[in-house]
What we know:
mainly alpha
Amino acid sequence: ASKNVKFANFINSLGIQDVGLQGSKLLAKRFKNLDNLINASFDDIKDVHELYLKIKESVDIKDQLYRSIYG
């Protein structure tokens, strides 16, 4: 029996260093399917990764602020 897997979960399952589930979701949203991802240019993937890093940094700062205030 075949099993449908969300594209983001598939990307995440590859265990690409520093990508994680959030990065996988961004890649899945941008490229839609494996063919598009495989055929993407380095610059296209880099653009998505840079967006991910900005989001992650923002979340980390908010998390640190929250911990500073609420312990």
